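User: Second chain of the day. Same drill as before.
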Amino acid sequence: YQDKMEWGKADVYYKKLLSADPQFIQAYRNLGNLYRYRLGNDEAKIKELIDGGLGFTDNHPELLGWIIAYYQETGQAEKSLPYSEKLLEQLNK
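Assistant: Same format as last time:
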């Protein structure tokens, strides 16, 4: 659906994937990118998605890196600090 530029259907598909496998990291990243670049860059929606994914994946480093990059690239580096601290904790385990 994403390749066909059917953003709404892609959104539904990724949510179904995550419902079936809440630890599917790439689906969180793809859905986050969809929200960011195709569905209005809704920060609250992106944060909710990634925070939920972090809960299901025990703060997976790839998701932490994704949200850190999102905040830095959107000029909100201060919001990335709590995630950077979590990433440091994960890397020191």
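The radius of gyration is 13 Å.

User: Great, on to the next one.
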